[in-house]
Amino acid sequence: MRPRCHVVHQSPVGAGLPAMASVQALAGNLAFDVDGPQRDAVLGIHRMVEGIHLMVDRVLDLQEVPISN
Q1: Which helix (H) or strand (E) holds 55?
Q2: What's the CA gap between 63 and 58, in Å, rounded?
Q3: For residues 44 and 6, what is the distance between their CA atoms, to the nearest angstrom?
Q4: C-alpha angle with apex 53: 48 to 59, nearest 5 degrees?
Q5: Cα dist from 43 to 19, 51, 54, whole Å
Q6: What b/e sequence results for 20-40 when a residue is b if at least 16 CB atoms lie within 10 Å of its CB, and e otherwise?
């Protein structure tokens, strides 16, 4: 059985998650307010931020440390 782990949230990588979530939310909302090429650009930004967010989550998963008992 895998030991319980604690993610190190003080890392610089983890510190950017709230900002990325904000950018992703803003781009998602803006995509409904524009049309044409501008909408495509905003959706592209949304997808890029989503991909970065997934990569950061993966890095944080790899940084898990066991909880001391």
Answers
A1: helix 37-62
A2: 9
A3: 33
A4: 130
A5: 17, 12, 17
A6: eeebbeebeebbeeeeeeeee
Please give the pLDDT value at position 21: 85
**How many residues are present in the chain?**
69
Averaged pLDDT of the chain: 79
Q: From CA 45, how far away is CA 29, in angstroms rounded? A: 12
Q: How many other C-beta atoms are found inside a 10 Å radius of the C-beta of residue 41?
A: 14
Q: Which amino acid is at 24?
A: Q
The domain spans of the chain are: 13-63
Distance CA 63, CA 23 (A): 24
> Is pTM beyond 0.70 here?
no
